[in-house]
């Protein structure tokens, strides 16, 4: 839809400066006096409207999830929300907003709990008012503004609104989820104006991908004036940088305007006609139209930043649409979205890379993607090679998920692939390794659609691309059939850095700060000179718990090959005389034990996220590594939490390795009392099922927020959690396990399912325990959970 907007010329800047946000006291109020309230009942419940009706404040229902206490455009059908009080904590029907008699604006949920309150309520407040600017204010009797919503933006700013130093606008999570998302627009305290990725689910800034580069460090205020002009001003009012240009003054008054950090990370300025616009067929049409946006190509701006999943998430790629220049997120061929309702969570492979079957190179083929790359995922780089050599090298390396090739240079990349992009400016091609049974027609058609976008809308070119693609796949199949693969010649050794004892002693300041003690030694915090901004955890192994020289280095090398989002990465080791140390990533949120066993009960949904992550990490060790790794000591103390409270399994540096032709092994007892599987004590060969047993105990602890053994309990039958949980399951009293957990009590169906899974995991008979892959399938609901038997039935039988 064309509105014929005209940008203001530079000579108009003086006029524009006269249109700064004006005092809200100059407007007439539609007041809500002390004691006024509104209860959430219908889809739209208005508590206050601006004098013109342009803006409304009240409750708006968000799907079936609950209500937002929000401000929205009152006269347009979309009811577009511009501000909300409880974006991260929706309330249910029966909740109430109230301007209390002591001048506080408060949101109560249906149970009477305070969910939100105006930050700086003042005893002088006499009324609340919704202004025609979209600003909600608390004012005194003489109309002095004591609090205003304009000072606390969510994802949108409006004309007459200003952003002062340290203010930020945070994108919503998805199109229909208004909670804080992955991107933000921020005027920093140092005067820099930037767009950032966030450390989701936290809102702290991670990577800047757009900024006002020619005014670094000198900004004081971001101003959105009534002409639609958004600019960065200095403290003296001087214009420093334009974010979005102005509309002509004659046009601006005819449209509603807003600037929003959208869930895809792009800051856009929108316009909506205040009156209906006639279309050519005589109907009336109204819609938000994009006027300007920053950055011009977010796919290109976020790549190569070295941290995070980029614009679209891990194992996916970003490309711009032809029509609206919006980022489109797609999975790599052979991969599927983790959550189709939230595609920026990324994608997961539909097949294994380092399981036993994946060692057979004839099971794989390549899907070729032109003009594609994942810049932050390379782990090996070769020059002066051919494309055929590059293909063979990737085929014979189970860690290689994608190889990129350009002008004789081959780069091998492993999952999770980050910051993916398909763009005409990207040189070379990506060779995506897929299982032959996963390289289906849908993946091939995805490639064709990618090429179609890149080459434009011409029907002839698209037809030509289609024919070329078919020829490419035919040629690829013939070529791969004729290639002789020699994996032993092309599989390079994974390099794990070695440190001297003195280097690590210096890095830890003489092993000064102890982080914890484990089964094999003490962990200290350190700082490596090569990583000045990144702390490490140095584990000093007990000399009495030493393996042979060759076994130690073999296990360190094997662990160094692991690469999974739910494992703590091994950064290096020391094997010098009697000193053996392991260097890991440092996790500042500590262990699951610290998180779980504290006075305040952690969030139920965060606990479930941690359980899923732990299960996926163990499954990776068991089924996706080149050598199966049995952790042997799964417990809350060995599950660390990263900055986003995701589970990261640690302390598997001296776990037991199984060779490719082994399924079980004999070894001395390892692990921690209470988590050790019974077969350790029966001289039975151990398998991966010992980790399944330990996970079952851990799962019960996470559900109930208590340790497996607690002697100081009122009722003796509750002393051992595993026994009590089974009794509660049989007696249909599972609510007793979570009786002090309101969130879990409202999710009893999941509580029951997870307790049943845990009971299966702690069966005395190892053969009855599921694999970790099966555990994940049951947790996700892909496989039904059968009725578990008594865990001790195996003991009774023998």
From TrEMBL:
Alphabetical list of Gene3D superfamilies matching this protein: Bulb-type lectin domain (2.90.10.10), Phosphorylase Kinase, domain 1 (3.30.200.20), Transferase(Phosphotransferase) domain 1 (1.10.510.10)
Q: Which residues cross the membrane?
A: none
Reaction(s) catalysed (UniProt annotation): L-threonyl-[protein] + ATP = O-phospho-L-threonyl-[protein] + ADP + H(+); L-seryl-[protein] + ATP = O-phospho-L-seryl-[protein] + ADP + H(+)
Q: Which PANTHER family match?
A: G-TYPE LECTIN S-RECEPTOR-LIKE SERINE/THREONINE-PROTEIN KINASE SD2-5, RECEPTOR-LIKE SERINE_THREONINE-PROTEIN KINASE
Gene Ontology cellular-component terms for this entry are: membrane
Q: Which species is listed as the source?
A: Hibiscus trionum (Flower of an hour)
| Transit peptide found in the keyword field | no
Q: Which family does it belong to?
A: Belongs to the protein kinase superfamily. Ser/Thr protein kinase family.
Q: Which InterPro entries match?
A: Bulb-type_lectin_dom, Bulb-type_lectin_dom_sf, G-type_lectin_kinases/EP1-like, Kinase-like_dom_sf, Prot_kinase_dom, Protein_kinase_ATP_BS, Ser/Thr_kinase_AS, SRK-like_kinase
The annotated topology with respect to the bilayer is: Single-pass type I membrane protein
Query: EC?
Result: 2.7.11.1
- Residues annotated as signal peptide: 1-26
Every Bulb-type lectin domain range: 35-151
Which part of the chain is the Protein kinase domain?
Answer: 509-795
Q: Name one Pfam family in it.
A: B_lectin
Where ATP binds, per the record, is at: 540
What's the main place this protein lives? Answer: membrane
User: Per its UniProt entry, what is the enzyme's top EC class, as one word?
Assistant: transferase
Tell me the compartments it is located in: Membrane
What's the name of the protein? Receptor-like serine/threonine-protein kinase
Its keywords, alphabetically, are: ATP-binding, Disulfide bond, EGF-like domain, Glycoprotein, Kinase, Lectin, Membrane, Nucleotide-binding, Receptor, Serine/threonine-protein kinase, Signal, Transferase, Transmembrane, Transmembrane helix
- The answer to whether UniProt assigns keyword Transmembrane to this entry is yes
> Per its record, what are the GO molecular function terms?
ATP binding; carbohydrate binding; protein serine/threonine kinase activity
